[in-house]
Design goal:
Radius of gyration: 14 Å
Number of strands: 7
Helix content: under 10%
Oligomer: single chain
Keywords: Plasmid
Distance between the termini: 21 Å
């Protein structure tokens, strides 16, 4: 597997179009990324341009870090890796009340 692979296992969540949070304001459903490294081996920092793509056969759209993509759609999203420390980004359905499965991909073409 590539060193910079960020994997999200199957996630079951309530069908609401907002980031559900715990009592201490921590999102329940997140994409977690540890340190990501650039081609030269240095740690990627700051804002990274990514593309969120939701499969066209998805039951509902997906929202990642505040950007929503409908089934069959791709949207640009920025992910702030800060100073290279571990980060988490909220994920939730973009439509409330829909039951089903949605597969999506988040692609960072080249780390900065």
């Amino acid at each position: 597997m590539p060193n910079n692979l960020v994997r999200l296992e199957n996630l079951k969540t309530i069908s609401v179009s907002t980031a559900l949070k715990t009592s201490d304001d921590t999102p329940l459903a997140v994409l977690y990324a540890s340190q990501l490294r650039k081609k030269d081996g240095s740690i990627a920092t700051g804002k990274q341009d990514a593309i969120l793509t939701v499969r066209k056969d998805a039951a509902f759209g997906v929202t990642v870090n505040g950007v929503s993509a409908a089934p069959g759609e791709s949207k640009n999203v920025q992910l702030d890796l800060g100073l290279g420390d571990s980060r988490s980004f909220p994920i939730f359905p973009s439509t409330s009340g829909v039951v089903g499965t949605s597969e999506f991909m988040l692609n960072i073409e080249e780390l900065k």
